[in-house]
Amino acid sequence: MVVRSQAVLKQMLEDERxxxxxxxxxxxxxxxxxxxxxxxxxxxxxxxxxxxxxxSVRTRLEHTLHEVQxxxxxxxxxxxxxxxxxxxxxDWARLEAKPEARLCIRCKQRSGFGH
Length: 115
Description:
With 115 residues, the protein is an all-alpha fold. 69% of the residues lie in helices and 0% in strands. Helix 1 (2-30) packs antiparallel against helix 2 (41-77).
């Protein structure tokens, strides 16, 4: 059953990697151009805001993609599902909710960050 569950989680990660790559490809086309060459300051400000937002979204997508790829690499190394901090097995419910999880819930709570 654990092998089957790991296979499902690995497939979830592979699917997520594909989805993130597609979103990043789309985001690359949005984050370009110069700001400050329009006729109206308000238009320039709106464009600057939108570019900053798009860049923030892209940065988050890249970070999540890195986490997903790292989790897939753990399958290859035989360390998937182990907490990077204490080395214990991460609870299956946590992995199902967040297959790229690096820490068990106890270590994550101690770190003071969400998810």
